[in-house]
Amino acid sequence: MNRTLALFLVCAGIAVSACAKHAAPVEAKGGLVVVNPVGNRPMFFDFGKVSFGSPTLHVFELRNDDAAPVVVHDLIASCGCTTPRISYKTPAGEIVAGNPVSRDKVITIPPGVVADVAVSVDTTRVEVMNRDKLAQVRMRSDSKTTPYLTFEVHLLVERVMRAVPAEIELGQVPQSVGKTGRSDLTVDVPGTRARVLGIESVEGPFTASVDATEVNGVTVWVLIANAKPDQPLGPVSGRVVLSVSGEDGRGKGPPFQVMVRAQIAPDVVVRSPVLLLGSTERGKVGKVQGELVALIPGERLHVLGTTIATEPESVAAQLAVVATPIEPADDGSAEKWTIVLSTSEELAEPAFSGTLTIRLDHPRVPEIRVPFSGARR
To answer: Of 39, 288, 30, 233, which Cα lies nearest the Cα of 154?
Structure first.
C-alpha cells in the first residue's frame, strides 16, 4: 500500500468515526408519556365493532416526566361525537378535573403525576354507520419535549336499524294535554332480515307504541312517542328502547334506541319569552314584537287587557301595548296574537326594564307575565 493511499484511509476513518459519534441518537427524556399503552401504538386505542347506542370510553394514562408542571392549553376533538376529558388524583385522593371548554388553560399537571385522558364517542352521533371511523383528540401544552400530542380511537358502529328523524323532538308541549311525535324505522343494512320485535322500555315521562306497515314494498316500523300530560314545566328527555331481531331474522340482536326530548310549557306562551327593545335613539319610537300562541291545536282565546309595571315607575306612562289577533274567528278569538310593545318619542330614561302582564280568557292560563328591557341613546 503506498503512502498516499494509507494516509487517505486513516483520514477517512477518523472522519467516519467523528461523524458517527456526532450522529449517535440521543434518547429523549421528559415530556408527557402514555404509561398504559395497548400494543405498539401508545396513542391509539381500538374499540372495534360496537352496537349503535352503546357507551364507549377509553382512558389514556398520561404521566408528566418533565421536571416542571405542564400546562395543557386545549383538548380539541376532530368531530362532535367525540368528547375528551382530563383529570388527575392528588396524593390526598382529591380529583382535579380539567376545564373542557378552556382554550388557554385546561389543567396543570404537576411533575410525576399521572393524568387520565378519557376519550368517549357518542355512537348515536357518529356521522356514518356501519363504516370504520377514526376519531382524534389533539392536545396542546407547554411541555418542552411533547408540546403536541394526538390521541386516536377507532371504531365501527353497527346499526341494523335507522330512524328518521333520528330523535323525536316534540318542542314546546302544552302542559295539560301533552303532545305526540313520530319517527319511521327501516333497516340500515341492505339484504338484512332484521325486524323490530317490540318495545323493551320507555324512559322519561313518555309513552310509546310501534307498528309495522308497508311503503312501496319496504317494511317501515312507525314509532309514536307521547309526552304525558300534567308534567312539571321545563325540559324533559328520555328514550324508547326497541327490541330487534338478529340480522337473519331470528333470535334477538342488539336493541335500538330513539331519544325523545320535549319542553313542557304552559298551554299559552309568548314567543319570545323576553321582549328586548334594544337601544333606540332619543326622539324616536322604539318597538318590539312578540307572538302569543295557544299551544293546543284548535284552541282560541281573547286578550282581555294588558298592564305594564316598570323600573323606574315613571317609564310606564311612556309605553304602549297593542294586541292583534291573527286570523280571528267571528267572535274575535284567535289561536295566535301579535303583541307589540313600543315607547313614545318623549321617553328619555337611559335604561329601563319591567314586566308586561297580559290578561286572557283562557281557563288554565288567566295571565302571562313577560319581562322586557330597553335603553335610549
So the answer is: 39
Q: Are 168 and 259 in contact (CB under 8 A)?
A: yes
User: Cell triple for residue 330?
Assistant: 267571528
Cell, residue 293: 300562541
How is residue 84 written as a grid cell?
Answer: 375528551
Cell of 290: 312578540
pLDDT digits (tens, 9 = 90+) for 336-377: 999 999 999 999 889 999 999 999 999 999 999 999 999 988
- Contacts for 121 with CB less than 8 Å, ≥ 6 apart: 47, 56, 81, 82, 83, 133, 135, 153, 155
Q: Cα dist. 92→95, 96, 112, 147, 355 in Å?
A: 9, 11, 15, 29, 51
Measured CA to CA, the distance from residue 16 to residue 19 in angstroms comes to: 5
What one-character DSSP code corresponds to residue 81?
A: T
Burial environment of residue 176 by CB neighbours within 10 A (0 to 12, 13 to 18, 19 or more):
middle
Taking the alpha carbons of 287, 337, 365, 307 in that order, is the dihedral positive or negative? positive
Cβ count within 10 A of residue 352: 21
Q: Which of 175, 169, 161, 162 is nearest to 239 (CA)?
A: 169
CA dist 82 and 100 (Å) reads 12
Measured distance CA(325)–CA(301) in Å, rounded: 9
How far apart CA 300 and CA 293 sit, in angstroms, is 9
- Rg of the chain (C-alpha set): 33
Q: Which amino acid is at 309?
A: A
- Phi, psi dihedral angles at 12 (to 5 degrees): -65, -40
| Model pTM score | 0.69
